[in-house]
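Listing S7. Sequence submitted for prediction.
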Amino acid sequence: MLFQVYGDLSLYQVLGWILVFGGLILFNEIERRSKIGGYGIFVGLLAGLSIYFIAIYVGAVQKAEWALNNPTYIHMNSWFHYAKLYAASAGCIGFMLLKYKKGIGKTQWFKAFPFLIVAINILIAVGSDFESAIRGSMALAETGSRWWLSSEGVWLYGGWWNWANGIAGLINIFCMTGWWGIYSSKKKDDMLWPDMTWAYILAYDIWNFEYTYLNLPTHSWYCGFALLLAPTVAAIFWNKGGWIQNRANTLATWCMFAQVFPTFQDASVFSVLPVLYADGFMRTDVHPTTAAPQVGGMVAVLSILVNLALLLAIIKRSKRSGINPYRGEIWKGTRDFDEAMARAE
């Protein structure tokens, strides 16, 4: 068992997961199929939210009660959440330029943008993983416990698992192949990256789930489970080759929702804790007395092993075919690749 989904609130917790998963699927379809939906959310809505965020922090500096008590200011004030929101949204906008072939989206050099923005997003998470490992070590030296309190009032348990998963994230960057193999779908509803097959999606999903489980533990039922599964299901069943676009769309959408309505996952009947919190609760004002990090440790080992296995497979396939895995597309001839290419212009 990864999460504490049982007891009187279990029905609400499962319902919350279904609503998030279904909502992300729905919004992804609106964003990928419609220019108005895509630009309206990732440009228009984001611009409005940016003004809202700035107003909150200006108000907080001025000691305004409405700002200091705002849920966004209390629950979502770390650098990571804002970095992730804007990096993911930048990816969505860049992917739309590529699939609609607008502006720099027409150029050959801009085809490397998907690799660059995904690598940046991974590095943001890797930096957060390493930060937690360091803070956990500092807490152990100072207090005898690896628990440390984040700026958002969440107790995190930093250790070797963070180092292992951070390294897995760095390896995952080098598992992205066919950087220039970016296409627009015939219907102009998707930006396709055919060389990003099921093997990469699996390695990424395991690594990213572990990241959320370790560093966003009170959110990981949603941002680690529902959020990762939504784009993967779409890529498997009806959107071959479009996984990275699905991922960016759902991630940016979730970040906007979570930034504005953080209490949905932090302080409501829909909140879910991982088994890490062996005390059965997480309260900012109560230092945890016990921890159950075994699951996180096992998934960290799995994360690094799967990503290493994929990298070795890429090296082997590259040598056998004589194709540079980054300049060329090495998964040609595989079912996933061919099905994605069948959708390309």
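Caption to Listing S7: primary sequence and predicted structure tokens for the chain studied. Residues 111 and 159 are 38 Å apart (CA to CA). Residues 113-143 form the longest helix (31 residues).
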